[in-house]
């Protein structure tokens, strides 16, 4: 078959310091839709054009950060096969029962070499995007705030980048689309990986601070809507890290900003279409600035230092 | 693996009445790049952001139309497997030697039940898009005319729609994304199929005129560039069928127009991202107008009657 | 001074058959803001980025059409001077008392040779666009529906086009920006006039049906927002006349549609910047199609026949 | 009349260190069109949608900066009247003979209180924008590089801001659209002035460095074309000061960059439509950051310190 295995980033559980403040931010400014709360107090949200029950789970905690990263896979059989493959590769896995997350089937969990907790799942209740499946309209009305269309990708940091890269490529079937080399001209400083036609579904950065998150990204439809997003952030005094800007990597455009707890979020737009017969792009150490911030060709200190 | 099997529409051989006039149209107005001519006089072209040697082949003939439709597959092993699967399904296949098309490997040919000649191939020389793979820039300069980024999809007509649909779904791994039902509310009048995250890679329409083409489509980056395309067509007196317009199907936007030989071409923009866990959309007979031309909700006679 | 005399189309009173239905249409679909109702039952509306109290007045009547067209002038002294000039030119004028329209000062009324009732006024209460005048933000939030930024221009029809054209040019200081010639190659079939940097503030078309309106136009910010407008019209089953499309005249883009009473409305976008040292454009009779609908180069029957 | 007096910024003479390098920059990267060279070696350029012979004159010199700023006025009679008014206001004026600048009529020169040399003129040969005036097309083809549509405005610095502001408002008929106040909450730190429907045609900033220029600005059509401009600058290693960004003032969007001689240039897009019945906006000292760079709300050192 043509599209198989791991489909896409499906959900992420983010820790927030003040739940009410976070919900207000994620619904009124970022413009996600609240779809449920569970017995433990977690709040579930989805982007306007997502059809599954949720893509973001907010959990109150005493420090910011990300609990786990979930990928949806094609079906239950794929879930079993991937679990088998992970174990054969030497990765310990654990099953989380269906219903532990609202409206979500069994999840297969594992830790990647960079320390992050990942999970795979095949089932989540489809609640739709308001358009239905019979003679649908083309626009979703009553969108609020920035209103991204979907959860798009993550950039996460850890020491054993090579380990996580190889696991995603060799076991989970991801393709390498871009890399930044270290000063030695050989070792990967950062890698961008995809399981789809997107230019990236996940990025790993080599960093002594294992199991940390640089950002979760949400997809914006146009460069003009990215401008609106920045205007709204400025009006509501959201803490903008940097942007709107152009990436060299992926050719995408972007704004980085912080939720009220200090988790960095990206609104991302664009990116070329990837096919697995394409050669990956390589960026040298000297051109890392242009790789990340194509116009200024210089990184800012905050962008490099803050992870959660 | 995540992206496997058939990758994308890779090339199409179009018949034109006057080769010089056609080359002028496809390079100066549509804005493809000529990449070669072969001993038999065929002209090879590619879109600006395509990396393989060609996606369009123009052949001089005494009537317009399409000779064959080629899909690129992941690799040589996939080509062998798909050939085996086709034969197991009862489809006769034929190998065309490497080099028959410039810079192209062996092709596996077969006729679909709608009468069209398809081919699969795994190898074509990568000539790049001018950006290179080391510290690439983000824009391609010196683009001419309309300048689509790639060949996108085809809509083709034939009597045994069910046969071609089932072949593409069951053997080639395509997914059904949308359908229009006949007046009986059961039979498919038209189907849209994808082998990727695109909302469609090919569409089949039930039509007594088997082995005919409605249009070949090229991807445009934005609705604004689609306006420029229409402006340029009007300035150069290209025969516009209809557009710019919005489709209900795929949510895409479009202009339909004719090359000097009467082949209908589409410049297409947008379309939602498809994943194989998504339900297909169904359009009823009564809403066929909105399915195709979402704003006016009415088809025009020429759009229905002209195929080549 | 640099900007003097007549400033811009300031308001228009439109007749509607069902007031509730009309208010629902103009506020929820077109997306104007209701700002008041007067003792006679008229409803006042403004566009989101207009600062004066209103630009549209809806009056219940038993047939559609336009009661009068109001231009704002620089100040009270200008109002007096223009009244004097009109009378000197042989035009009868009448003063309507301040307060006859809500929040509006005295108006000077006159009939143009094409039969239309115009009025000039210098004062209308400024209620703002929500941004204020101290450290303003750059976006207006909570916009509904199509949400044009302002009333833009009118196209109106009448027999004595020459008379109205000369009155607007010679007395009111308008400049001719474009014209379509009649079949004789000499007489004006239609003229576009401006009192600002806009490509047109009003257009007159020669037509035996004097004192009729072809459309009132509202300004949309981008071609992309025009697409959204058409999508929303289609979703809400608004009667679209034609569009989205490109005009040859003004280089603007447009959708024409009808309010529930049958008044034609245009959402207009773009248009070049005009300065009075620029030569006017002339369109010949044969190219009238391209002048109006640049891509198709053909007029539709409904566009020509329906006026109110 | 509705549009009278001073029409628009018409030309600017810029000093460059290396003429060949400058011409290459202004034609191939900025994308102006060279229209002539005079006996003294000056190079004349225009933007693609300007119709007069030139808007930029490059003069080789041993330091960067601006020689003079020219405004076009309505006609010869207006030129005489404004000269009379200037003298009545106590400003010395000088006539420069027709032909001193190629294809340009007599110019009336004067120094503003901020030290800058201005000139007014009524005549310049109209060479058109390639579209002609009979059945014109809507797009200009073969545009190169960034390709702004016109010269838009200047920001210039000097000590006696009050004097220049009053001269432009009281004698030349400009309107104040926005101001930033000094720390005292009363004095103008900077003022934005217009003679048209533009949000600004010129800005004065209070600065001990009299007769200096902060930037000359060229108009870009869309926020998307501004992104392309930045991409092209990055690719060609143009020195970008800052951007793409949003201004609080004017609501415009922008990139600031330097020509090879160090003259700062702005590509500007947008800005609200101004009418002289509108109240000016006031920005307080504390919000100067947001006034200039709306998203980050912080000025950069280079933006403040470099003038030529």
UniProtKB/TrEMBL annotation, chains A, B, C, D:
This protein's UniProt keywords: Aromatic hydrocarbons catabolism, Dioxygenase, Metal-binding, Oxidoreductase, Repeat
The enzyme's E.C. designation: 1.13.11.2
Enzyme class: oxidoreductase
VOC domain boundaries: 8-123, 150-270
UniProt xrefs under InterPro entries: Catechol_2-3_dOase, Glyas_Bleomycin-R_OHBP_Dase, Glyas_Fos-R_dOase_dom, GlyoxalaseI/FosfomycinResist, VOC_core, XylE-like_N
SUPFAM superfamilies, A to Z: Glyoxalase/Bleomycin resistance protein/Dihydroxybiphenyl dioxygenase
Gene3D superfamilies recorded: 2,3-Dihydroxybiphenyl 1,2-Dioxygenase, domain 1
A GO MF term: catechol 2,3-dioxygenase activity
Oxidoreductase recorded as keyword: yes
Subunit: Homotetramer.
Family, similarity comment: Belongs to the extradiol ring-cleavage dioxygenase family.
Protein name: Catechol 2,3-dioxygenase
